[in-house]
Amino acid sequence: MHKGKKLYEGKAKIIYAGPERGTAIQHFKDDATAYNNLKKSTIEGKGVLNNRISEHILNSLNQIGIKTHLIKRINMREQLIRLVEIIPLEFIVRNIATGSLTKRLGITDGTVLDLPLIEYSFKNDELGDPLVALEHITAFKWASIEEIKKINTICLRVNDFMLGMFRGVGIKLVDFKLEFGRIEINGKKEILLADEISPDTCRLWDVVSEKKLDKDRFRKDLGNLIQAYQEVAHRLKILPEEANISEVKFNKPTAVRLKKK
Ligand code: UDP
């Protein structure tokens, strides 16, 4: 598949122009960063696992009618996606209080929330992705009220789906981050779920032991990050039980025809 020029390079992914207009190729790197880039490392195999886990989750969401940017996985590290105009906000959905929420508000770590809580932060590395209110979002025209209403509904649907999916394999979905983009399909403006959903962007705890199966293993120097991501993939039946990332055999991605615009 023809890969065009590099359009954007982030901390964990690179976006290249895709083979057709309106498409892009999303490449998953092995780089890990935390604390606004203060902590950096390369963890061999992380990109491959995130590519597979994110493909699995976004495909499942597509199947329940949630529109995403994913067209298909192309290879071990890359996905063909629709090129969207990214809304410059991170939507954080929380079921259990931990991380920045507990630090900011002095809430006891592990407090189960009565209802999911959605927080917004402004996507800006230099400013450290600050938390913002709805008023900031509309004042600075990052998104309209209508868009936020639609996105909040999608966030809650994604949360319901993922809570069940992970609970079914013995994992608590503590919190996660989503990003969205705008696109015009047949003259109609649509909002698509974009970016990735993986153990890099979710907090996942084992139901019984509360063992962390996510990027907190890197943030908190707990070690065995790849083993934890592999365990998530095994439990979701993305990788065969006995498979190890060095010997994973990947299924050929299925061909998907792009709609002509
Ligand atoms: N998160 C993310 N990217 C970010 C910030 C947060 O994927 O730039 C995810 C993070 O992995 C966690 C959730 O969003 O699952 C909530 O993160 P929190 O605000 O607690 O951030 P942290 O404690 O990492 O500063």
Could you give a quick summary of the protein structure above?
The chain is of the alpha+beta class. The chain is built from 6 helices and 14 strands. Mean pLDDT is 93; it is low at 247-261.
Write up this protein:
With 261 residues, the protein is of the alpha+beta class. The chain folds into two domains: 6-84 and 226-242, Phosphorylase Kinase, domain 1; 87-206, ATP-grasp fold, B domain (D-amino Acid Aminotransferase, Chain A, domain 1), CATH 3.30.470. Helix content is 26%, strand content 31%. The protein has helices at 46-63, 100-105, 134-139, 145-167, 216-219, 225-235; strands at 6-9, 13-17, 23-28, 31-34, 39-42, 70-73, 78-82, 85-86, 89-96, 112-122, 131-132, 171-185, 188-194, 202-206. Strands 8, 9, 10, 11, 12, 13 and 14 form a seven-stranded antiparallel sheet that branches. Strands 1-2-3-7-6 form a five-stranded antiparallel sheet. Strand 10 and strand 11 form a beta hairpin. Helix 1 runs parallel beside helix 6. The protein is globular, with a radius of gyration of 18 Å. The two termini are 20 Å apart. The relative contact order is 0.17. The model is unreliable at 247-261 (pLDDT under 50). The chain binds uridine-5'-diphosphate (UDP). Residues 90, 92, 99-101, 129, 175-177, 201-203, 215 line the site of uridine-5'-diphosphate.
Main attributes of the structure:
261 residues; alpha+beta; binds uridine-5'-diphosphate; D-amino Acid Aminotransferase, Chain A, domain 1; 5-stranded antiparallel β-sheet; single chain; 14 strands; 2 domains; 6 helices; Phosphorylase Kinase, domain 1; 7-stranded antiparallel β-sheet
